[in-house]
Amino acid sequence: MTRASFCGLTSYMSDPKDYLEYIENVLGVRSVLISPDAMSTEILAIPLLIAVQDYNSYQVEEKELLGKMIAALKIDPKYIQICDLNHIHEYRPEFQITFAEQVGASQTRLVQTLAPRVLLKKPELKKQAWDDLQPVIHFFRSR
After folding, report:
1. Tens digits of per-residue pLDDT, 62-84?
2. Residue 15 has pLDDT above 60, yes or no
3. What are the residue boundaries of the structural domains of the chain, listed by start?
4. The domain 44-141: what is its CATH number?
5. pTM greater than 0.85 (yes/no)
6. What single string gives the DSSP state of each residue in 84-119?
């Protein structure tokens, strides 16, 4: 089992140990082969987290538009981590961009903008999304 799939399964449980207890006590499995790093609950510190709602279900066209939007930020890719919105608890970003189906109120250093999936359906909203990304560009240019 990969780390990503393990983390996805444990999102329903508070701790990976809960998951292993469930497997043993409910399913009757007596041993599980898993790498030690998959059990790590360490939160990763990163400069920029890009959290995308339903990212795991994105089609090629949606991923291409997301890639173009990220490239337009002109931020070195080594500072960027992309994840599904359901996995943001695994990271401690300095700055976060959230791409979602609907945009809510922003928090400090949190940018929420429309997802590429929405922008492909409603191209007239691309300017709004670009305007939403401007604080990120300014933040990284000033570093």
Report:
1. 999 999 999 998 989 999 999 99
2. no
3. 3-39, 44-141
4. 3.40.50.10220
5. no
6. EGGGGGGEEEEEEEEEESS-----TTEEEEE-HHHH
- Which alpha helices (DSSP H) does 11-59 contain, by range? 16-25
* Residue whose structure tokens are 């329903």: 12
Q: How far is Cα 6 from Cα 34, in angstroms, rounded to an integer?
A: 9
Q: Identify the pLDDT of residue 32.
A: 62
The Cα–Cα gap between 83 and 51 comes to: 5
Q: Which residues contact 99 (CB under 8 A, 6 or more apart)?
A: 50, 51, 52, 53, 66, 112, 113, 114, 115, 116
Please state, as a whole number, how many other Cβ atoms lie within 10 Å of the Cβ of residue 75. 20
The label of the residue with tokens 């399913």 reads: 27
